[in-house]
Design brief:
This protein is mostly helical. The protein has 2 domains: about 60 residues, Arc Repressor Mutant, subunit A (Orthogonal Bundle), CATH 1.10.10.10; about 150 residues, Up-down Bundle (Four Helix Bundle (Hemerythrin (Met), subunit A)). The protein has 11 helices and 3 strands. Strands 1-3-2 form a 3-stranded antiparallel β-sheet. Strand 2 and strand 3 form a beta hairpin.
Length: about 240
Amino acid sequence: MPQSPAQSPLAPVKRPLNLRETVLEQLRTAIVTGELAEGELVSAPTLGQALGVSATPVREAMMDLVREGLVETVKNKGFRVTSMSDKDLDDLAQIRMLLEPPAIRMVAANIPEEAFTELTKLADACLRAAEREDMGEYLRDDREFHALLLAYTGNPQLVELATSLRRRTRLYGIAALARDGRLAASAHEHHELLRLLRAGEGEAAEELMCTHIGHARTLWATGSDDAAGAANVEA
């Protein structure tokens, strides 16, 4: 089992991002939220000019995004944002349903009391980012929150896989939800999840995690509770 956050190398460390990390987070967020549209062809120099940096950190970040499946290289032209069909998004959500809710139920008995301090800080950070409509910070803190929770399964491969699936999910409705104040309401689910886990209510935590992942395919993906593929999300 993971050590306490004060000792564990898995505990999130809040530090300023370096230039490459900052560029990577901004580009990943732009793709996940649809600011950079599916099929759009971009070049490192053009993106670098828009971001106010040289082409080098952009090119390095884009190669990371190639490995994540968010963009693909186009010879002599640059990079193209990959497309995801409804079936692709349904499949991602279904895999997450099979992995994360049972894992959350498992960790209900494994999280030491002192770990809830760091987890609560991350939940608070998600809520503040949602209220500020800061999508980059929200997505980053959300990934760290769920990765830290899953780390208490003692299975780093599960953490890596779940985080990879989370990065690849497109959330085209999330910015509009933030403007409407509805993303903050969803962010409160992090605090409720911690309350259930702290109380050892693994079954209820598993059910809430199913709801939370369902948002990624419905509410966060489209801005609607009734996405076309929602029925296929059930595990």
